[in-house]
Amino acid sequence: MTENFFLHKKQLFDCWASTYDWLFPSVFYQAIHKRLLEYVDLPPRANVLDLGCGTGRLLNRLAKTFPDLHGMGVDLSSQMLQVARRNNCYHPRLIFVEGKAESLFFAQEQFDAVFSTISFLHYPEPKQVFAEVTRVLKVGGKFYLVDFSVPHQEELQIKHIVGGIRLYSPNQRQFLGSCCGLKCVAHHNLLGPVLLTIFTKPLTIHLLHKHHRNNM
Ligand SMILES: C[S@@+](CC[C@H](N)C(=O)[O-])C[C@H]1O[C@@H](n2cnc3c(N)ncnc32)[C@H](O)[C@@H]1O
Prior knowledge:
binds S-adenosylmethionine; alpha/beta; seven-stranded mixed sheet; 7 helices; 216 residues
């Protein structure tokens, strides 16, 4: 069932790729990227990951704002990535690779920040994605989750709407983060129903994993 789900999503975004940057949603998404940047705080020479990077607009904007930043974009759709590579103004600082947010092929603790803008709502296994984000983040690193949100809901009652899309309330985001040890730092309204939630990976989680590894 899951493989079919991913295939369907991939086909959907492959079809959308050639017009993605021209249609209204993209104008809206770019306004969101601009708002997001008001809250982004990165160390010098930051190494960042964009999950569901689409045509790579956010990473290009980040690379322009932070001239020593290196970024990796991951997306399910090969067609979206083709557009991202064609429009990459910062190669080799920015690299775009095909993959799933649910199973990242990066070593642990590689990134200073992970971004996900209007993509998380498509993920069928949100807990798995949170676990992967936690794994690849450095201690003190941040996860910037930007997506449409809904008002307060019970932590485990995820609201589904059409096409396998899931929307999360602020407390559900916090719950998902806490399940893998991420600490929620803040929520910010970006535009209309689009909410930014910022998580950080605390030192305690690192010590816990180290302890676990030493006892294996
Ligand atoms: C609406 S677009 C957003 C693109 C970009 N983040 C932006 O802000 O413009 C959603 C993207 O998420 C990607 N996507 C959906 N499910 C995914 C998954 N499980 N893993 C990786 N990428 C995924 C899609 O292929 C698509 O490019």
